[in-house]
Amino acid sequence: MKEHQYDIIGDVHGHAALLKKLLKELGYTKKDGVWRHPERMAIFIGDFINRGPQIREVLQIIYTMVTEGAALAILGNHEYSAILYHIKDTRGEYLSKHISVNRGQIQSTLTAFKNFREEWKDYLQWFRQLPLFLDLGEIRIAHAYWNDEGMKFLSEFIPPGKLKKPFLRSIHEDQHPAAAMIYKTLKGLEFQCPPDLVVKCDKGISRKVFRMKWWESPENKTFRDLAFGNKFILPAYTVPAEIAPSFEPYGPEKPITFVGHYCLSEGPKLLQSNICCIDGCVLGNQKLSAYRYSGEDKLKEENIVTVEMG
User: Fold this and answer.
1) What pTM, to 2 d.p., does this model score?
2) How many whole angstroms separate alpha carbon 275 and alpha carbon 258?
3) Strand order through the sheet with 287-293
């Protein structure tokens, strides 16, 4: 038996029925209120809350598994946004402004906890104790993006223990580089078009910002080839060299990394031999997936396990 056996589970987003079905499929059983596997450990890749119909139950399952040593978990962008939604800056304004788009994102969670406000406060405290990423040596876990220098910077800069409110106020009010790196880790790399450039997608809409691949060199890429995880298709025009993004691609020689976040309508995908996006967009497809890692040097499609409702 391999020393380390992990089941990396994609974004659950409040779908407890799917999560329980997936855990059963993976061989986990519930005993004394905790889902466990006799030999393996689950790793939740973030985005437990919002969207789905069973948010409280999802949090109860994941929290119990983590605190009882049956699972590990990291923050997703939805949990991080929830934290900021409840913290005021020194001017009395919330770090995540209570505007319609932010309210719309978190409303299903707030509604689920309408009569359980103390419980919600406890979960918010727990969120601030979760890591932004995990480096387990043979594998790495991040919600949307891994960059060696960026992770080293965050590891050295962020105080241990938990994300304290004064620290979060400070980095966001001061627009500290740590805030930007946290957002990259949780949301991925985004291409920002210059103001005078019009790039229209297949829907005829001008796209000023789009998610992009961070594991391949952007050199000589078209907008279509550079983009990743968007709900639209960009034109096959080569990105002009003078505005091409600059970053270090995550090469195939680096350790295996798992991400979620991108809500791939086609389902989980091996992005290259050492990167797997395990987020198959539970909301649209009513499917949830996990990757069963057992020490292999290269990722294998057959190790992805998917369940669906019905």
Assistant:
1) 0.96
2) 6
3) 71-73, 41-44, 6-9, 287-293, 304-308
